[in-house]
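Hey Z.,

So I finally got round to the adenosine-5'-triphosphate thing we talked about over coffee. Here's the setup:
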Amino acid sequence: MEEFHLGMDDIDSPRGGCTTHFASLLAEDLTNLGVTWLDYPNLIRLNPNIPYRTRGNGAVVLRFRAPPDVGNTVLENVEQAIEKYVEHDYPNTNPGVVLVRGRPPSEMSKLSTLAEWRVLAIDVVRRFLSRHHIAHISRGNGRGIVGATAAVGNRLLDDCTFEFIAYRSLEDTAHERGVDAESVYEMNRRMKGKTFSNIDPQTGSVLIQPHGPDPVIYGIRGDSPSDLVEAASLVRCHQTIERWTIFRTNQGTGEHLRHLVRISDLRPYMAAVVRGRVERRGIMTEGGHLIFTISDDAGTIDCAVYEPTGEFREVAASLIPGDIVEVHAGVRPASRTHGMTLNVEGLNVVALVENVILSNPLCPQCGKRMKSAGREKGFKCTKCGYRDASLEKVREVVPRHIHPRLYLPPPRAQRHLTRPYERLGVRNVLENTVPTLAWLSSHGKT
Ligand code: ATP
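And the result:
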């Protein structure tokens, strides 16, 4: 038996299919061929700021042991399966598949880390694959091999979560999913602390179901696969669940935000943490976005907190010049109208300055706020005429409504990779990745 790592990305079908769905079908075929699974399928989210992503920039890896003869035909079979899935031509999809025989080279994990926060050139990946003689399939513009390669390199060693994804058939993707919100609320209550990002607390909206015409009916996230199976048994929906799969993932780990970057080193589409001093208070634009400015010893940059992040904008609006913050961000390139901007996806308030306002004193005689009587002449009262040259401005400390800690947008506006409040300080390290319970259904079974 030989060890195989099969990475894949950018496999979309005209009927709305997606890479995880394709991987689920493929996993079933491989199970039928008798492979031994080394891990749950890994769903690896990559840099969320990549402009060419369709949805959440996810790639999938299947890790298994198989007799060499199965290994010899895997890639050929996958190629045929892709052609069937994407229906022969590749208009908006650029499938990439890589097959590593044996242990993935250590250099691959470096590529993987890079792909989580930078833009990787296809050529860099191509050179890597040819240097290591790694067999691969690359269609369309070839970009899919970036995600496929990066995904194989991420063994989810530091932390991981799981997602139970229920799928409908590709024939059903034009219709309503009919996920019963009440059942999701109930599941959320019963599975509190064991699942995350089910419901948006402010709006009450159900977050487990996507809205596009893809085969995913819902996805439930948590730290343990058995909890997810229980959670899924509590959710009702109108559409038939054609299949389900449990993925081990880097979702909810905050893995993309491990790099503290100076403003002068920022590049378009990076995912970065930028530490700076607030220079300019937030200004609300017509569209409801809040823009504030920070600087470090090397530069100054605008930070944008967008309208869909709702009340998160109030945190940014409370910042005043002098505050020290770490901005968790995606870098938006400069455009004709704006300079390079940080799209804020989290705010770690490091230190707050005192908010002091200086105001004119109240008249000691009648209590009305006084006016300046002129330079170094103290203050006068316009109501009762009282004057006092010795009076000075009054120093008032205004209480701050934010504290030094991490603030996140509401779950409805978070990235797949965002480490949610529920997971702060949590590390899920598996000693053994071999699945211990059923993680894949086949047609009709739930
Ligand atoms: P799906 O769920 O259907 O896979 P998606 O949101 O994951 O949709 P893709 O259609 O896979 O998006 O498109 C993302 C593309 O970007 C892929 O071709 C992937 O290889 C590529 N990509 C991912 N990360 C990077 C990166 N860091 N640098 C350059 N290219 C990347």
